[in-house]
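Cross-check.
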Amino acid sequence: MRSLGKGFIWSTGRRWLWAGSFGLAMTGTAFGQDCAPGGCGPDCCDLHEQNAAKMYAEYNKLLGVTGTCCPDSCAAPAEICVDECAGDGCTDSGHCGGELGDAWTLQGAICGNDPCNPPFITFGGWTQAGYHNKSTGLFNSHPDQLVSHQNYLYGERVADGSEGLGFGFRGDILYGADAQDTQAFGEPSPQTHWDTDWDNGIYGWAIPQLYAEAAMGDFSVKAGHFYTLVGYEVVTAPDNFFYSHSFTQYNSEPFTHTGVLGTYKASENTTLYGGWVAGWDTGFDRFSDGDNSRGSAAKFGVSQGVGEMLTLTYIGLAGDMGLVGEGYNHSVVADFALSEKWNYVFQSDYVNLNFDSIGINNFLFYTVSDKLAVGGRAEWWKTNLLTGGGWESAYQITGGVNIRPTANLVIRPEYRYQWGSGAITNLAGANGQSAVIDQGIFGIDAILTF
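Predicted model, tokenized:
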């Protein structure tokens, strides 16, 4: 959440799925499957090789590879194998085929792709640039110019608790116009903010994630600075369908937390979350001055699968959120896989802090092919944030297309129309122009992953 005055996949950002890991899954499609020749199972190779192949499958998910064909000499356990790559077969490099083929990765170019010797650290990133002709008052608030939004690098080791206690870590760094909205600005004055002094005009640097992680069995815990689980849309560009963002995501949700978060996979369909965070959008400086640092809140939630078509996710926060005050907020997301090609998402957020808000978003996506998808978004956002008093409503509808010429590149043209209270013009992104009202906004961006 940015306060006022601070002036390739067709799936969108499911924070409950990854909570800071660069990996996506799409319900109802072949994306994210791990594949192997028929007969793949525990007898294919020894336990060491099975675990190596299993880690390699997860590693490929992080890199955005659509699947892994386990070689006969190092087959993965049966629970992560299927008999085919969604009918597309396997490429020479041992990945699932399809229209796009393999994505080029910096990791693969440097370290290779050996399924029996997965790398100690996974690293990669992306670059995103875009153009919009008018200001949304949110992230896209620098109209009529080519904007370098995100130049992003990450490195991580996923904690593997499948054979006992395992350890991992992750660090992300971001340079671009989106950085100032992703910094740790959530502590009230006179507290300093650890990455807000690195700005240069509309551009800046941010460290949105820096944490350590431990896992054992079905339980894992991370400690440090990490992305929030609240909401549906996210900061990271490759994890969103649309170039622009909703009013709700930008104004009524935190982007990051600093604290401790536990995750417990209670069953195949149920995941529980719980921990402590230092409020909204705070950094490690939260611990440097006890007199001025105040953010302290409980974070909790549950993700529940219902059959094969529906996943319900509730994430809540209660306590002192820092700059935005004390109280409670939550998000509820219902994700429906209507068919192999159709996906509908309903999201609702509620905030009761220094300001109050209610947000409802509806998303509908249709996958035409590996190279083309279309989507729509409709939003109602009601709040007293815009005036500091009475309630005002803002609305927007967005239609867009995702075009993927290659496995590494996605182009996202869209048209957005926003209307409602005149107070919408009080919204402005970091060092950006005020939002327009009762007007259409054209935008287009491109994301190149590596």
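Helices lie at 15-18, 47-63, 106-111, 247-251. The chain has four helices and 16 strands. Passed to J.P. for a second look.
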